[in-house]
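Session log. Operator J.P. requested a structure for one protein chain; no other inputs attached. Running the standard single-chain path with token output.
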Amino acid sequence: MKNKRAIPSLVMALMVLSATSLAQIKVNVDGNPVAFTGTGPTKVGGRVLVPLRGVMEKLGATVEWTPSLQRIDANKGSTKVVLIIGQRNAEVNGNTVSLDVPAMIIGGSTMVPLRFVGEAIGAEVKWLADTNTVEISTGGSGGSGTGGGTGTATVEIDQFTHNAGGWVRAGQSVEFLLEGTRGAEAWVTLRGTNVKIPLREVAFGRYTGSWKPTAEALGGPLLEEARVMGFLASRSSERQIQAGSLMNIDLQKPQLRVISPVANSRVTPRARIEARFDDGAGSGLDAKAIQLLLNGNDLTSSASISNGLLRFEPRRDLPNGKYTVKVSAKDVAGNLSSGTWSFEVGAPSPIKSVTHDGSGSLQPGQVITFTVMATPKGKVLIELGDLFKRSAREVSPGKYVADYTVRTTDNLNGVKVTAAFTDSNGVVSRLAAPGVLGRR
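Structure written below.
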């Protein structure tokens, strides 16, 4: 029969291999250095572990080790702490407390997480990173640890991090981790905003929280290079720390403008497909994340993409039929924008001709007449470039006419005239008049 202790022993062995043994770590209790023989203080998973008896007895605690149960009992005053080798839960006066790092055996020595045991029996524990020193102050305390509140007046922060690398996009959650004194209140703020994110103590001295940014909370969709501050406070003490990296947030997706062919239009077999994406003041377009699909086929590699403009020109005539275009783009933050529309190729154009009498010098008050010959019973719109549009009336079967009086503020020289015809099925066809308005 297999030894039931083989598995936890293997786990401990692996954890020992991953431990960072720092011989230079020093421990002082009430200003007096603690001398270690054999295995000294060791860091595992960011937590300092110390030999069981040396430090605990310096803190005035009595320690009992039960090998058969792999159990440690530390008592001081009315406080009783129980740890089991390899287990991530401990007991403080009967209350279960989660541990980041369990007690373990390293080099034949029983090692316990220093901050947990120290604070549980009422001592104040500080980590001085610049000197690799743990400072412990007993303050004459007889122990108050119940696992539910800080036993010290002063709080300390060991580390503070977040996972918002680069940019944060809409719908993305940011995770925060703050480690320090147990039983305190912890929260996060972003400088320049009213955001306050509470953190919850999920293990002994380990506080975490998740936050999903909104434009309402930020006062707008963009936030650049915000300082991320972590706070830890008790009733009489407060500490703050700035995270090592700034936070950038972009909650708006790129804007799409379809250029051609327009939706539901009828075009020639060599029609060009064009669309433009604009990210405004956001994180900027990701040129590698722009895509073009035509009837489900990826044509991105055959398209030209420059400054947000996507353009595809068929190398040969498109077969007659209906086509569906889907374009998509992402910005650097990962916000996705997409659009889908259809056009038709190959059917005979319902527009036979587009003419006008607006050649020569155009004067204010002059009336320009536009004439379109097309299929009867349709709707015709005269488009003067991007300036304005005017509806034409069907004066006889298939003949559509529109008039326009030149205004003093108009500058129509060189403007292209296009007729847009909509049939009874809602399909739009376009045809441009020869030349342009004004002098030729």
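Operator note: The radius of gyration is 37 Å.
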